[in-house]
From TrEMBL:
Pfam families for the chain: YgjP-like
Protein name per Swiss-Prot or TrEMBL: YgjP-like metallopeptidase domain-containing protein
InterPro entries on file: UTP_pyrophosphatase-like, YgjP-like_metallopeptidase
CDD domains named among the record's database cross-references: M48_yhfN_like
Entry superkingdom: Bacteria
YgjP-like metallopeptidase domain segment(s): 114-153
Stored PANTHER family: UNCHARACTERIZED PROTEIN YGJP (PTHR30399), UTP PYROPHOSPHATASE (PTHR30399:SF1)
Gene3D superfamilies, sorted: Metalloproteases ('zincins'), catalytic domain (3.30.2010.10)
Amino acid sequence: MPTPPNLPLLTGYPETTLAPVRELLASGQLGARIAARYPDRHPYTTHKLLHGYVTELKQRHMKTAKPVSKVLYDDRLLVVEHALGLHTFRSRAHGAKLRALSEIRVAGLFKDVAPEFLRMIVVHELAHLREREHNKAFYRLCTSMEPEYHQFEFDLRLLLTAREVEGTVGNEAPRAEPR
Ligand SMILES: [Zn+2]
């Protein structure tokens, strides 16, 4: 019996959900399917624009959470921290006190994605300002900021899986990218 393709980004999803995904992958259609569903691109492609976007969402939904000292795209960040972004909490000596600084680093691949996926990752990182773990309270925060959070996260996982397995992004020609 052939081994089904390993889908590390989709661990934990039930087989009933994964079966159609495997079929689309087998026929090389998964990337195109996601690309068709999310045709737009967001305009926040620089650190500065990203910073503005994060600040606006934080003001609207997480006003009382601790301040974010730094927001940036990090090209060295590949698909880590559960295929998502990376939030870091650093303690720095600040006079006699230790002051916790929060940074939001978003993987460089998010520069060129649909607005839904940028929103999802930023919501995810903002929720981490309150909850460090991926627990129920964490996901409640995510869905309070973006009601379709779970759908977008699942579809992002599909997109990244398609890039891994099919080696293409939607309908584009395959790109040779340095690893
Ligand atoms: Zn996380």
